[in-house]
Amino acid sequence: MNTTTKAIILLAGMQSFATAATTVFGANVRGFNDQSGTPLGDGILGVLVVNTATGEGGDDGFNTEINAGAIAVNSTLDTNGDLLILNLIDSSFNLLESVNEINGAGAGTIVDLTGDAASGDEFAVYWFPGLSAGGGSTTKSAGDRFGFTRASDWVLGPDGGSVNTSAVASAGDATGIVAPEPTSTALLGLGALGFALRRRRA
Questions:
Q1: What's the CA gap between 115 and 91, in Å, rounded?
Q2: In the chain, where are the structural domains located?
Q3: What is the tens place of the pLDDT at every residue in 79-100?
Q4: 168, 150 in Cβ contact below 8 A?
Q5: Residue 10 has pLDDT above 90, yes or no
Q6: Got the DSSP string for 161-202?
Q7: Which of 40, 153, 163, 178, by CA, is between 20 and 30 Å from 192?
Q8: Percent of the chain residues topping a pLDDT of 70
Q9: Residue 32 in contact with residue 40, Cβ under 8 Å?
């Protein structure tokens, strides 16, 4: 086998192990409010997530149960484990436009397409009025409020590509409510069942 053939085989092997990735720019969110419709300011936790579930299109794919627990990059936000967290960022005041903003993708979020996420998956920004990454808490508790929003072009690009997204000008209110952790719910159910059985025997 000559040197040229070896080099071609080596390059082909290296390419098969190369990380497939796409980059998300923008995902800016404005007009985000608390549950009463009051505009929120700086330091509100924004979370960029991609919906990795197949067969779920549009906003309905994000309208799911958000469970209590820590929020961390590469973990999931929801009970079903479909909403993969890509980025955490606090809202800040945009001096140029005099408006509070969550820039969900920061300066550009690189998304690994070799894991759960895939080209064509939709993404969204969630915000949690009671949480903050900068010196605050990033652990959501049962009963916490959250909101979410996305634009129609918030879709992951192909390998090696990028997407520059439209901004959302009026994200709306934080009408969602965080559910208890699944394990906590199960334990509460078992406890209630045990109590009922105990009363029956008495």
A1: 28
A2: 19-201
A3: 889 999 999 999 999 888 889 9
A4: yes
A5: no
A6: -EEEPPPBS--B---EEPBPPHHHHHHHHHHHHHHHHHHHH-
A7: 178
A8: 77
A9: yes
Q: What is the DSSP letter of 33?
A: B
Q: What's the mean pLDDT in 2-22?
A: 53
Range among 23-32, 52-61, 114-123, 176-185 rated most confident:
23-32
CA-CA distance, 149 to 172, in Å (whole number)?
8
For 95-162, what is the HEC assignment?
CCCCEEEEECCCCCEEEECCCCCCCCCEEEEEEECCCCCCCCCCEECCCCEEEEECCCCCECCCCCCE
Chain centroid, CA 69 distance in Å: 14
Q: SS3 for 88?
A: strand
Q: How many CB atoms lie within 10 A of CB 64?
A: 18
Query: Are 46 and 102 a contacting pair, CB within 8 Å?
Result: yes
C-alpha separations of 16 from 12, 97, 127, 160 in Å: 6, 45, 37, 14
- Which residue's entry shows tokens 């979370």? 47
Q: What is the pLDDT of residue 148?
A: 95
Residue 198 has a pLDDT of 47
| Cα–Cα distance, 49 to 36 (Å, whole number) | 24
Residue type, 182: P
Distance of CA 11 to the CA centre of its chain: 35
> Residue 96: its pLDDT value, please?
86
